[in-house]
Amino acid sequence: MSKVIMIQGTMSNAGKSFLVAGLCRIMKQDGYRVAPFKSQNMALNSFITEEGLEMGRAQVMQAEAAGIRPMVCMNPILLKPTNHTGSQVIVGGKVLGNMSARDYFEYKKQLIPDIKTAFHKLEEYADIIVIEGAGSPVEINLREHDIVNMGLAHMVDAPVLLVGDIDRGGVFAQLLGTLMLLESEERKRVKGLIINKFRGDKTILDPGITMLEDKGHVPVTGVIPYMDLALEDEDSLSERFGNQKEGAIDIAVIRYPRISNFTDFNVFEQMKDVSVRYVTKVSELNNTDMIILPGSKNTMGDLKWLRQNGLETVIKQLSERIPVFGICGGLQLLGDMILDPEGVEEGGTIHGMGLLKVVTILKKDKVQCQVNGSINEMGGIFTNLSGLSYNGYEIHMGNTYYSSDKDNENEIQTPIIKSLDNDNVYGTYVHGIFDKSEIALRIINTLARNKGIVIDNGEFEDYQSFKEKQYDKLADTLRKYLNMEEIYGMLKEAHVE
Asked: Do the two domains 3-231+468-493 and 249-451 of this chain adopt the same fold?
């Protein structure tokens, strides 16, 4: 049987995902077979496994840190918000259906067998399982039938480390308040407290730590400094969205309300002299060198949003002089028409932006598969991408056809679609297509040449190698500031009925 430990937080974005990844990397370095687990993830960043199953990208990142391939049993339930009150519910990597928040709250207890099955499956691979909670364990309105925080800790008999974010203020109230609101039996599970994202001289914090331990009756297992890491993070809470500093080459990613899989662009962020900005206003597009329309969980709704704030008009104008690249939902938005006969999103038909001569028909059956091959021959500003090898994955709720295919008989198969009458407009269904170093480099070099400048990217390294160094940096920091001897001593053999 595997041994387990669980990371819970006082709030969303307290640092749980990175802590799980860091512990996975440490334990891998120490010779253990280790794996991450999160019973329920709410995220619009997702991934498709080798088996064609969908899971949250946070657990993919953690699996990379652990040195094992991503498996859907690491994240048996994935909720993908479709609007403010409902989500697409994915269980075991496959779509169960759309549910309102209230309906899912009533339904979720029926998923306990799926969680236990996934956990038992993961035990076949791992000596140690590091579990991530979600949000806060003391959200009063969510505690009934909890399956992701203390409910899960009880289900697998896991000890808990509770982490608070000092960077956002009030960390002592966060930690003590959480402990006070836990039930007595739940409080006994908390074996250590972690203060995360600390800036400054730790000795100034020492009196507060003494008080925290005296009042909370739980030891502080570590104070972790604020870390500048380039790793994939979770959805709308990403700190990336606040960056508006423009580099020598500037890429503007349209941040519509239901943006998904923005991890597609992380590779560009590590490149010298390149900025990636997530924009929501026309004024933020003034000096950009390329516009990317990313994935969307509600393409029809996001298209209406583009129209209402004037971005559609400006993007179409700018496409005459700079590249516009649509990925997945972004590809669908760039087309002539989106049809929704089965009511997958909003039902009916809506005209697209008209920059690609394609039509998309939304369907309830989701396309989800890994893909690889060579980029098709194409012209335009990115003709130098032709023939390069790529790999990635597709995940979408529709099929796309050329507008000239009146009977919609031949679904488009080429990895990249180029506009027939605009050399700057492209679209693809392949998530992760930019992760290949040669593809990313050629895009940036083309943008530089188009701008009439030369940039130095001689030190650019393979993206996967770059991420491996980031995981090692994370592990080195945690080793220095966490009491790993205590944490190893907390590990407990899982007991799942």
From this structure: yes
